[in-house]
Design a protein that fits this description.
Shape: globular
Number of domains: 2
CATH superfamily of the largest domain: MetI-like
Mean pLDDT: 86
Strand content: under 5%
Distance between the termini: 27 Å
CATH topology of the largest domain: MetI-like fold
Order of helices and strands: HHHHHHHHHHHHH
Helix content: over 70%
Low-confidence stretches: 267-274
Structural class: mainly alpha
C-alpha cells in the first residue's frame, strides 16, 4: 500500500507539473522583456521581471482589458444567479412532485444538453434580432441563462434525490408549508450543490467566446475574451501584452473557485462532508 501511495503521488505530481508548463511559459512571457525570451523562456541568463505588460493590457488603446473585465462581470454575475434560482426550484420540483408529462419533460431537458452551440447559432441570432436584443448585455444574459438551465436542473434534481424525504415529511407534520420546507430545510442543505453549480456556471459564462461573438459587436461593449484577439497588431504581435491579458482574464474564475472551493469540493464528492 505504501508503494502504491508513493507511486500515485509521483504520477500526480508529474501530471500536475506537465499541466503547469504552458502556464509557466505564459507567465514568463507576461513578466519578462521580449529580448529575454528570444532564446526560450526557460533561459534565465538574465531575469528582469516587470509588470509593464499588465498595465499596457489593462489600458490598451484598442481593446483595454480593464473595461472588458467590467463588461464580463455585468454578464457573468446575472447569468449565474438567474439560472441558479430557476433551476434550483425546478430541480426540486422534478425530484419531489408528480405532474403530467414529468418524465417526458425531464428527458427533453437532458436531451438539450447534447445540443452544440453552433447548431442553434443562426436561429438564436434571428430570435434575439427580432426582439432587439442583439448587441445588448440583456440578450447575452438571457442566452446564457437559457443555456445553463438544463444542466443545472439536471444537476440539482440528482442532488435533491439524495436528500432524505423523512426530514421534509416531519416538518410538514409539524405544520410547515411547502415553501417553508424548501427555504428552511432543503435550501440550507443544498448549499454545497448550489456552490458547485455557481462555480461551474460562472466559469463557463466568463470563458465564453462564441456566444459573445455573435451577439456583441460594439467596441465599448466587448467582453474580456473578445478583447484579447484585438490586441494583436497588424504588423507586430506583442506577445507580452497578450500573455498578461490572458492571465488577467484567467484570474477572475480562479478567484471565484477559491471563494467557493469549500462548497465546490463538497458538492463534487457527494455532498456528504461535514
Amino acid at each position: 500500500m505504501k508503494v502504491r501511495s508513493v507511486a500515485t503521488n509521483i504520477v500526480g505530481w508529474i501530471v500536475g507539473l506537465i499541466w503547469l508548463i504552458p502556464f509557466i511559459g505564459v507567465l514568463m512571457t507576461a513578466i519578462r522583456p521580449m529580448d529575454e525570451l528570444l532564446n526560450g523562456w526557460w533561459r534565465f541568463d538574465t531575469f528582469n521581471p516587470t509588470l509593464k505588460n499588465f498595465l499596457k493590457s489593462w489600458n490598451h488603446p484598442t481593446a483595454p482589458v480593464g473595461q472588458g473585465i467590467v463588461n464580463s462581470l455585468k454578464v457573468a454575475i446575472p447569468a449565474t444567479i438567474i439560472p441558479l434560482v430557476l433551476a434550483v426550484m425546478a430541480g426540486y420540483y422534478f425530484s419531489r412532485y408528480k405532474f403530467p408529462m414529468k418524465r417526458t419533460l425531464f428527458i427533453l431537458t437532458v436531451i438539450t444538453l447534447a445540443l452544440p452551440q453552433q447548431m442553434i447559432a443562426v436561429p438564436v441570432y434571428q430570435m434575439l434580432l427580432s426582439f432587439g436584443l442583439i448587441d445588448s448585455f440583456i440578450g447575452l444574459i438571457i442566452l446564457h441563462s437559457a443555456w445553463g438551465l438544463p444542466w443545472i436542473i439536471f444537476f440539482m434534481r440528482n442532488f435533491f434525490t439524495t436528500l432524505p424525504v423523512s426530514i421534509e415529511e416531519a416538518a410538514r407534520i409539524d405544520g410547515a408549508s411547502d415553501i417553508l420546507v424548501f427555504f428552511k430545510i432543503v435550501f440550507p442543505l443544498s448549499l454545497p450543490a448550489i456552490g458547485s453549480a455557481a462555480a461551474l456556471q460562472f466559469t463557463w459564462v466568463w470563458s465564453d467566446f462564441f456566444m459573445a461573438l455573435i451577439t456583441i459587436y460594439s467596441p465599448d461593449k466587448l467582453l474580456a475574451t473578445q478583447r484579447i484577439p484585438l490586441m494583436r497588431g497588424v504588423y507586430h504581435v506583442d506577445w507580452g501584452i497578450l500573455a498578461s491579458a490572458s492571465i488577467i482574464v484567467m484570474m477572475v474564475p480562479i478567484l471565484v473557485y477559491l471563494l467557493l472551493q469549500k462548497y465546490y469540493i463538497r458538492g463534487m464528492i457527494g455532498w456528504s462532508m461535514k
